[in-house]
Amino acid sequence: MDPTMGETTALIPAVIGQATFGNDEPAVTAAVVEAPSIEAPATNYPAGRVDFNKPFDIFSSYDDTDVHTDVSVIAVLKGNSYPVVVVSTNGVGDQVVAQFDTDGDSVDGDLKAENKFVGETTKFIAIYRDGREFGVHDELFDSEADAINEKGDDNDFYAVLPITIPASKQEIETDTAEAIDHEIPSGQPEGSVQVGNYTLKPGDKVRAYRRGFGERTCTVIKSRTTDPWKSLYIQADGDGSGPYWALNKNIRYRVS
Fold it and tell me: What DSSP line would sit under 212-245, residue for residue?
């Protein structure tokens, strides 16, 4: 053996039995050893208000309908206030990398993470009263206490009610007239779409409402017919919040 090499240990098969032959020498039979099964290690990502070990969604902090796809954790930064690094694909097909804390907030505040609904879920809504009219605030709260803490001091606050969200999406028949309403009008310029009573195309100006920002004048950047509820990709004029796919119902009117 080469003296420069370390000591080697031979693998000796286990003796599981002896057979006696004519020369009375025992024969050694090697044991058959099965290869050990290998299991993928369980995920051990941080968990708090959001448990990153369970399925979760990523969406815009400013538009709850802008939900990302192909979401996955790519790294965990130990000792960081925003330890979970996630890659996802936004509504325009761009890959986005962001860091999140265990409350689900991204480091820049632009994105949110929330665990997906699994099974039937109970949420709470706040009811307000204005004279003889009643209305519902558009937020959903995780508990009655959260709803009261957020809305209980409002002068028009009236009550908190629990609502049950079913595990599966409710199937509703599509109105054919609604689908036709969003087709490209005949004879119109390329990129034109019908939104409500208006035929709109890239370059047009519209007044659009966005939660958290109110109503603003926006420029249409591009359009699509693949999503009849969000047909216009718009950018608010003089605003640094970035473009987004707007809900058709939030397009108030075309600016002349």
Answer: TTEEEEEEEEEE-SS-TT--EEEEETT--S--EE
Q: What SS3 class is residue 14? A: coil
Residue 112's DSSP bridge partners are: 59, 105
Tokens 């007239």 sit at which residue? 177
Dihedral (Cα; 120, 123, 127, 133), 10-degree rounding: -30
**Residues written for the chain:** 256
User: Which residue has tokens 């519209």?
Assistant: 206
Mean pLDDT of 43-49: 88
Judge whether 86 and 46 are in contact, CB under 8 Å: no
**How would residue 118 be classed by pLDDT, with cut points 50, 70 and 90?**
low
CA distance 225 to 182: 7
Band of residue 40 on the pLDDT scale cut at 50, 70, 90: very low
Q: What is the phi/psi pair of residue 255, to 5°? A: -85, 130
